[in-house]
């Protein structure tokens, strides 16, 4: 069973004066067809940069992204067209990502136009079908983005991403800007579409609350590095990494009889220009030990399929 997407030692550094900002500092992940992998971490942990590099909106500093076995960075710009059709992205802010002067017909039809697929009536029909697919009325076709609510705009963003029948979609915090009441609707829509169209998702989020419902597996990232990876169940019931434990403690539990202590992390995420030595999480870790400042913890399979990078496990 070969993965649809295989990310190998992916690094993305940005030059800052004479230094470099290590936004993504060694990402290794296999994503299988039909699954959803959640990518979680606070803002500034490199999640969006990872998403943008995996879809080749950014060129990597190092590493590979194999899509169906081929490194997408090996393609010349002129050869990227078929990759652009197969790999799409849904963005956090549906308003900022939609051109306010374009009508829905043009917004959703634009990817089709760029790739020279269909025209005139046929394209209009395709856009109407896409609107229905995401739960919007085809009559919206002549409207502008400002005429829609946040949730509707995100549905338009999703329809646009689906226009080319992609296989893999990177969803970069698609629900973070939406009201809580709307979030579940959009998550459910993404789940339905996944089933219907056989989609594979990388679902980026800054907390675990919705991610644990949509994801089959979850990767927790901190300062551009991988902290923990496992199936969602194991990660949420038995989190191993102190960072995951803290993120999880912030998720409200619907059952009031279950008590869980909130772990509040001190301070902010340190600068990715000068990350801490050893374990990058040590400046905020409630369980930090002496060894944590001198040695980078190894990535270790602690239980079958449950990986962690932390000196507490060895
Ligand atoms: Fe905390 Fe040390 Fe584990 Fe890092 S390696 S998470 S500092 S205990
Ligand atoms: Mg982001």
UniProtKB/TrEMBL annotation:
CDD domains: ABC_NikE_OppD_transporters. Keywords: ATP-binding, Nucleotide-binding, Transport. The keyword Nucleotide-binding applies. The keyword Metal-binding does not apply. It comes from the Bacteria. GO terms for molecular function: ATP binding. It holds the Pfam family ABC_tran. Residues 5-248 form the ABC transporter domain. Belongs to the ABC transporter superfamily. This is Dipeptide ABC transporter ATP-binding protein. It comes from Peribacillus butanolivorans.
